[in-house]
Task: structure prediction
Amino acid sequence: MDSQVMVALGLSLVGGLSTSIGALFVVLSKAPNLKMLGLLQGFAAGLMLSISFLDLAHNAINSIGFLKGNLWEPSLAQVPDLKSKKVY
Result:
């Protein structure tokens, strides 16, 4: 088989086994610790957000270049002035 196919199968196997091991911990534990569940959910949410952001940033840098992908022009951001109802 091709080496890329073997890597893909190996990573799929690791993901499936990780899910099974996590489910085994849930089944074998007596009562859920709400503090730990909140901590783990926060970690998982942060991990998913960072992976999504880094994937999008990588694609942006590849398509428009490193310098343009990392510059932020403050004059392009429209900041509303709430008192006078104007947008600067």
